[in-house]
Amino acid sequence: MPFLGQDWRSPGDEWVRTKEGSWEKLKLWRIRVFENLNSTYVARLLRLALEEWDSCYDDLHNLHRPCIRYHRATSREQKKLTSISEAFIHLDMSTAGRDVRRFNYVCKLLRLLLCDKLAFLSGQAQKHVFSIMEDMVNDVIQSQNNVAEMRLLVGFASQALSDHRWDHIGSSRLWNAHHTSVNRMNAKLRKFKVKERKSDGKMTFGALPEECKRHILISLPDHRDILHLGATDVTNHNISNNALLWKQLCFFHFNNRQITTFVNMNAEEKDVDWKYVYRRCYLRFGQKAVYSDMLAICRHCNNIFWNSLGHPCSSELPPCCLSLKPEEFIALFQF
């Protein structure tokens, strides 16, 4: 006679039915409920009870640093295997996508999942991906930052849904819900228009001296931002064509071997067109990915965490952490 456990979906796990009608693990649902409580009711109580609201909330946030213990495989002693859905929740990926320092990292991570792994993700992981994207779209519209990157990401999502229409995990109802979510995000981005800044008497970028402008442009890692700024007026055009600026960009994104491919070794430095060299190197070798903040994994306790926030390590040994690129983070999980 066959044995039927208490829960046929996953023996040993408790499941709960959500408002959307889908089933979710009780432990993940409980974590999400407490996260919502922390972001609403606790914040309201602190704001009413304490005069120094900002500093107290920062201290509270530092006490709960997002991280997750990574379990590589199951064994006789350990039957738990970390899933990417749990990682999204524990690492607070939705908040990370709204952080200007971590936006590029989360954007690249979602792009890799949409282009290569969407058809292999579980239904719960798919819902997390599109929920994070929708939060990012709302934040982009409100802050008016990274609009072009968000439009590209939504375009990749739309293309991925069309490509994997017949070979995906999950029901057709779930897939149609993803289509509805993407159409809603597209509609919001189409309606969005950049609001022109009103004259408030404060200093603008155009009022800065050329030396300050040049110093700001040197800190930009993406050449597209420099080209767009150079198209605004004559002064910015002259600054954006500075040879020293493009030389620094060349040595930032490419190594000496790549640069010497397009630079004549016998030519004098004043005769080198660094903007042309950068364009040729970019077309041949691509651009180096730059992230203000990245995920990392601790070699002692196997916790995955954000570099800027750290993690509570149980080991007394000196810290030894490995930064994870988006593709390396995805490679940790089995699909």
Largest sheet: spatial strand order:
3-5-4-6
Annotation, overall tally of beta strands: 6
Taking all Cα atoms into account, the compactness measure Rg is 24 Å
Number of helices: 15
Query: What is the oligomer described by this structure?
Result: single chain
- The average pLDDT is 82
What distance separates the N and C termini?
33 Å
- The low-confidence runs, each spanning 5 or more residues with pLDDT under 50, are 53-62
Overall structural class, as computed from helix and strand content, comes to alpha+beta
Proportion of helical residues: 40-55%
Percent of residues in β-strands? 5-15%
Largest sheet: 4 strands, antiparallel
The shape is globular
Spell out the helices and strands N to C: EEHHEHHHHHHHHHHHHEEEH
Keywords: Nucleus, Ubl conjugation pathway
Subcellular location: Nucleus
Protein name: F-box domain-containing protein
GO biological process, one term: protein ubiquitination
Provide a descriptive summary of the structure in words.
- By secondary structure, the chain is of the alpha+beta class.
- Among the domains are: 222-285, no CATH class; 295-331, no CATH class.
- It has helices spanning 26-49, 53-63, 84-90, 93-97, 103-117, 123-143, 147-163, 172-191, 210-218, 223-230, 234-240, 243-253, 256-259, 274-285, 326-331, and strands spanning 15-17, 23-25, 67-69, 295-298, 303-306, 321-324.
- The strands form two sheets. It has a four-stranded antiparallel sheet with strand order 3-5-4-6. Strands 1-2 form a two-stranded antiparallel sheet.
- Strand 4 and strand 5 (303-306) form a beta hairpin.
- Its main location: nucleus.
- It comes from Dreissena polymorpha (Zebra mussel).
- Pathway: Protein modification; protein ubiquitination.
